[in-house]
Design goal:
about 450 residues, mainly beta, Immunoglobulin-like, six-stranded mixed sheet, five-stranded mixed sheet, about 10% helix, globular, disordered N terminus
């Protein structure tokens, strides 16, 4: 009996040591939000930066990791951080969209990434109502990459990769940020200077017969990207919430603000340089009112360039993530996306005369009002009905969802941002897991969010 007890105790101690040895070291990140002059594509421009960089520093995390992020506010207005797509506790927890850090102050974010958190591509950006669009459009954003053991097991972790963080900027001739017009705010501002991970026209290297993994993040405040690669197709391996069940091919990928996509490129063409572009995309639909936005122009984002030597030629795994479909929703909620002139009585912040108000179920955002109250552990269907002339990408904080129709994939995948086209409807299914508190859902055209298209969500036991 003593010997068996000793062996059990020794085994437990060894397992404990091994567990501690494999635990990731705490991640400690210092960020300072401030206005700085930076070199962007050979041009000196003044942008809003984290640590003097655009985009901000990439944060690499692992499930189970303790995280400490200290944010110093060097701006002249309040700011905060939203950890877009991460499954973290909402207000009063670390992912608090209602927190306001005054100019000159600092705040320390502390959390432990859940052990069961999926690997994937996420990002961080400010989320103070009334200031979100201006701060993100000014450059405040950065990538978060969560690396999981599953990718190593599948053999995809060692594929060469690049993070492609897409941002656009509207600048005056002197290199400073242009103030948006009323029309810019109504439409959702877009800037003519487009950067990919802080570069204009970067070269992305791929070996002949090899693979290149692109983690693409739409970090623009309003611009839609319609991704295309000259003479190549994409292999989609991941979306907002991590790996899809099975990879699939696509010639073009529409990526709305807030969305991420993980792509593999096969180096199976003749050696050379191939244009990585965003093709035109029209964000409005005809026959739905007087507002008309022209289709965006084609933009060259960078180049895929073949380099010497042979790359990895092993096949892409046929099975990737394991996503179980959510079932048995308790109820269906409907959210009508609308717009009207002016914001009186709609809880608007900073609305100017003649400004368009954007609404959900006829109401503009009011942080003192609870719009939706749900119960922890429940599964619900949410249907977004777009009664406006513009497409709206809808983002839900805290818990990811699955698109169940129309527009859902054949196999379920975890998303946190979904496109609701003008005059159409989209249904998603979500389960409120792990965390209670006050969260939000909103249009990720951030001018529309700031102008009212956001609701408060209370999750309670």
């Amino acid at each position: 009996m003593q010997r068996r007890h000793f062996l059990r105790s020794s085994a437990a101690a060894t397992a404990s040591r091994l567990l501690r040895a494999t635990e990731p070291a705490p991640a400690v990140v210092d960020l300072t939000a401030a206005r700085n002059w930076v070199n962007l594509g050979g041009r000196l421009v003044e942008l809003l930066t984290y640590n003097g960089r655009v985009p901000g520093p990439r944060i690499d995390l692992r499930p189970g990791q303790d995280v400490k992020i200290r944010l110093r506010n060097g701006l002249t207005e309040p700011t905060n951080l939203h950890f877009h797509g991460l499954h973290l506790a909402p207000s009063p927890g670390p992912d608090d969209a209602f927190l306001r850090i005054p100019p000159g102050d600092e705040h320390e974010y502390r959390f432990t990434l859940p052990l069961n958190h999926p690997g994937g591509t996420f990002w961080y950006h400010p989320h103070v109502h009334g200031y979100s669009a201006g701060q993100v459009a000014g450059g405040l954003a950065g990538a978060i990459v969560v690396r999981s053991d599953l990718e190593t097991e599948l053999g995809v972790a060692d594929i060469p990769e690049r993070v492609v963080f897409l941002q656009d900027f509207d600048l005056l001739p002197n290199g400073t940020l242009a103030a948006p017009s009323v029309s810019d705010v109504i439409q959702g501002r877009e800037g003519p200077l487009v950067a990919a991970s802080g570069e204009t026209m970067p070269e992305l290297a791929i070996r002949q017969d090899g693979l290149l993994r692109l983690r693409v993040i739409n970090g623009s405040s309003s611009r839609f990207y319609n991704l295309s690669l000259e003479e190549h197709s994409f292999v989609v391996i991941g979306v907002d919430g991590g790996l899809v069940r099975s990879p699939f091919e696509a010639e073009t990928i529409a990526l709305t603000p807030g969305e991420r996509i993980e792509l593999l490129v096969r180096g199976n063409r003749n050696p050379g340089s191939y244009r990585f572009r965003s093709l035109p995309y029209a964000r409005t639909r005809s026959g739905m009112g007087s507002l008309r936005l022209p289709a965006s122009t084609s933009i060259e984002l960078g180049r895929i360039v073949y380099t010497g030597g042979e790359g990895r030629s092993s096949p892409i795994p046929a099975q990737l993530g394991s996503v179980s479909p959510l079932t048995n929703p308790r109820l269906l909620r409907r959210f009508v996306l609308g717009q009207s002139m002016g914001g009186l009585g709609l809880g608007m912040v900073g609305t100017r005369p003649g400004m368009m108000a954007f609404t959900i179920n006829g109401l503009g955002f009011d942080m003192d009002r609870i719009d939706t109250q749900v119960q922890l552990g429940e599964t619900e269907d949410w249907e977004f009905l777009n009664s406006t002339a513009m497409d709206h990408p809808m983002h839900v904080h805290t818990n990811a969802f699955q698109i169940v129709g129309p527009g859902g994939t054949a196999a379920p995948a975890w998303k946190d941002t979904v496109l609701v086209k003008a005059g159409e409807r989209t249904r998603v299914r979500t389960r409120f897991e792990d965390f209670t508190g006050l969260s939000v859902y909103h249009c990720h055209i951030l001018d529309h969010e700031d102008q009212g298209m956001m609701g408060t969500l209370r999750i309670e036991t």
